[in-house]
Every structure is written in C-alpha cells, then in structure tokens.
Amino acid sequence: MLKAKKGFSLIELLVVIAIIGVLSAVGITAYSGYTKDAKIKVTRAQHGQLSSLINAESAKCAGGMGNFAWTAADGTNAEPCSGDWTVNNIVAYVNAATGMSMTNAYDQSVFALANTPAPGSTVITLADSDQTVVITTKLEAGSSASTVKTTKIARF
C-alpha cells in the first residue's frame, strides 16, 4: 500500500514565488507614482495656504490698524499693519511651530526660505518697492515652468 503524499512540490512553490515577485514589482512601481503625486499635491496645497494667509493679512490690515499675524521667530517684533512687510518674519512664521508649522514634503526640512527653492519649498520675496509679496514654490525637481508655481500678492 502506498502512502499519500503530503505537502507541495518544488515546482508549485517556485510558481507561487514567481507570482509574488511579479505582484510586488508592479506594486512598488505604482507606489512610487502615488508618493510623487502626493508630494506635489501637498506642496501645491501649502503654497495655496500661504498665499491665502498673506492675502487675508493684507486685507485685514488695509485700514492700517493692528498687527500682521507674523512675528520674528522668537515671537517678538510684531509687524504693525502700517509698517513694511518683512520677509524674514513671514518666513519665520511659516516655519515656526507657533505659526503655520509647514515642512517640506520631500525631505521634512523647512518649507519657506528666503533664497533659491529646493523641490517642495517656497521662496518669499518682495517686489515693487516692498508692496508686493512674491511666493515662488518649486513643486518637484526639474527646471520646466510646470514645476514652479508663482503667486504675487499686492498690498491693499
């Protein structure tokens, strides 16, 4: 009398391993695309939030009374609405935990800068005799126009 075989053959195990390998290769490729798109969307949303904040603060201060929301990094130097905008105070407010607390979606460093943007970061500058804030956000690596979003906000 022959004994019944128990277990899987080597061929069956190799087929299962091959199927798992193909599925994981497809999944990793798709995951990379999803994370890239998510980082771009986060950066674009942060750009919009920052633009909205500066626009709202400009509207709030149109009457010339009160202070802007941003202060120096240490919480001092409140900018009066009647004064000029200060890029360093806006940058500090955007990056500070007590302010907007935004971070770069690509490497978790600071979001707002006062110089050349890296992917996922924003540079804030002043133009037109310090009456216009220019927000330039680099959405992803590359130098084409589609990788950079720029918003200009004039003071009311």
Mass-distribution shape: elongated
Structural class, from helix and strand content? alpha+beta
| Strand order in space, largest sheet | 1-2-3-4
> With helices defined by DSSP (H or I, 4 residues minimum), what is the helix count?
2
- Largest sheet at a glance? 4 strands, mixed
Mean pLDDT: 83
* Cα-to-Cα separation, first versus last residue: 97 Å
Count of structural domains: 1
Give the uncertain stretches in residue-range form: none
Q: Would you kindly provide a written description of the structure presented here, covering whatever features stand out?
A:
The chain has one domain (about 15-155). The chain is about 40% helix and about 15% strand. The chain starts with 9 loop residues before the first helix and ends with a strand. It is of the alpha+beta class.
What's the gist of this structure?
By secondary structure, the protein is of the alpha+beta class. Helices cover about 40% and strands about 15% of the residues.
Give the helix/strand layout:
Blueprint: H1 10-60, H2 87-95, E1 112-113, E2 122-127, E3 132-138, E4 148-154
Parallel strand pairs: 1-2
Antiparallel strand pairs: 2-3, 3-4
Features:
4-stranded mixed β-sheet; about 15% strand; elongated; about 160 residues; alpha+beta; 2 helices
